Amino acid sequence: MNRASAPAVAVDVALFTVRDATLQVLLVRARHGPFPGWWALPGGRVAESESLDDAARRELRAQTGVTGAYLEQLYTFGSPTRDPRDRVVSVAYVGLLPAGPAARVALGSGKYADLAWTPATRLPPLAYDHRTVVRTAVARLRAKVQYTNLVYTLLPRAFTLGELQAVYEAILGRGLDRRNFRKKVLSLPLLQRLPGTRRGAHRPAALYAFQRRRPLVTEVL
Hints:
- The chain is 24% helix and 29% strand.
- By secondary structure, the chain is an alpha+beta fold.
- The chain has two domains: 8-131, Nucleoside Triphosphate Pyrophosphohydrolase (Alpha-Beta Complex); 147-210, Orthogonal Bundle (Arc Repressor Mutant, subunit A), CATH 1.10.10.10.
- Strands 1, 2, 3, 4, 5, 6 and 7 form a seven-stranded mixed β-sheet that branches.
């Protein structure tokens, strides 16, 4: 390798959803490259004619079938040894996707051998520096949900307060007091009550929606 050449630029996406009351990240199993058979984050090299954001969305769409996820840049990882083949600088992204039909994934053109949602705190061995990327992404997400409304990206349009609290608990990795949580979120200009209720095993639960489904700064916790 010619060390005088410019480093290649790649993107990697730590895409999260909440399934089974657990924060989960989408992993792909490499088919080729320096870590065949290893799990990793979806990603790839950035084309000369595209932006970083476009590259991240292209990789997700082409290789996992995911579209419409919320994405934001996380951090730039540039250790000289992170890729044994070449000098590669990776711009990592945090991605957020509501559970349900939107979180269905499908293998793309053959770059990966498999893909799966995996609990973010119980990761298998990961290729490159992707374990560090996931841990950095989880820390960012835990911090941001305390002072923003970002959990809207992980919920459907209509939800109950119980479902909202469950998402917070899955991200934070700890329980929250039910009464205090509800008192706080209902005191904020964050939610609007919807007509109707959701029936389940217990009494019917009121439905709510976010007043604005765009990032806002608001002290939730």
